[in-house]
Amino acid sequence: MEKQLVKKFLVAGVIILFIGAGVIPSVGSLVLEHNRYGKGGSYSVNLNDGSIIFVDDDQDADWYDHTHVRTIREGIINASDHWTVFVYNGTYYENLLINKSLRLIGENNVNTIIDGGKISDVITIKTGVDETNVIGFTVRNGSVIDENNCGIKIESYVEKTLISNNNIDECRTGIFIKGRFTEHNIISNNNIVNFDYCGIKLGNFAHNNQIVSNIISMEDLEDNKSKGIYLLNSGENLISQNFISRCYICIHLYGSRASTIMNNEISSCGKYGICTSSTGIGNFIILNKFDDFCGTNRGDKRPATFRVGNFGDIYSYQIYLANDWPDYDGSGFYRIYGKFGSWNLEWFTVDVLPEISS
Known about the structure:
Blueprint (H helix, E strand, L loop, with lengths): L1 H13 L14 E8 L2 E8 L5 E4 L12 E2 L2 H7 L4 E5 L2 E4 L2 E3 L3 E5 L5 E4 L7 E3 L7 E3 L2 E3 L9 E5 L7 E3 L2 E3 L3 E5 L8 E3 L2 E3 L4 E5 L7 E3 L2 E3 L9 E6 L5 E3 L2 E3 L3 E6 L5 E3 L2 E3 L4 E6 L5 E4 L2 E2 L15 E6 L6 E4 L12 E7 L2 E9 L7
Parallel strand pairs: 3-4, 3-5, 5-8, 6-9, 7-10, 8-11, 9-12, 10-13, 11-14, 12-15, 13-16, 14-17, 15-18, 16-19, 17-20, 18-21, 19-22, 20-23, 21-24, 22-25, 23-26, 24-27, 25-28, 26-29, 27-30, 28-31, 29-32, 31-33
Antiparallel strand pairs: 1-2, 33-34
């Protein structure tokens, strides 16, 4: 009972009502603490447009009712559209299907853990479910059977989803936006590690999404064939301010078009820093920083950190501008290594204003 009273007091203390001119407006914020990558901080969630369900796996028996439940699955079932499901710290062994628009919020992204038990995807946002938030969790142990088994999967025809401030660990793919007109979603400020296949993947026809300020890294580069961020036949996406390291290919654009790859930091890739391939056209690759050379696990000495490769269409082209290359000698354009069919080319195109970002 003492624990119950303390938690109710804490939650009540972070719901803030703004009072002005003698009137109490119906505006509330839930202020949540997080410890992202060892750096403390907080964010607020507006509770004005719905109600809230609390989840706790170790409360006293008399605490539980329709809005106070033991499992996250119960919370999702009991919630209505646009409600908040707030999850207290604990380890929850669940595989979740989110089939309605809601805010799924963890108390702390280190100590609020959803463990998928390596059975299937840990969290799936169902086809056609818009305006869902998943914030503040450690998501771990998704299935490793298939490359598209994920920590968090967003299915087709989903818009305006926010996946933010999560730690994702030991999943074949960290976050997968499946595609088919899955648009206007934001993947931000997540820490994704120990993935076997891909950190973040955007599938066919996943357009107009933002992948911003994520940390994507493998612990061991040796025998690692992973991709940090993979855009597959998708377009007009923004990939910005991510830190990607120790991946075989840090950013791979396959058949993708008109996306902006901007202000990312790429380090210690096994083969290529950025690889564009197939018939992708018109991608803007600007102001990215490459900390060191690639090729560290394939045995060659080639210093290039960028490859344009495997084109099936001569009209494929990209725009490179003002990237920071570690081996740029300061004279003229930066030549970018490429491959056309079976031909290896010492340079395929150029960065016309190299090293401006440094």
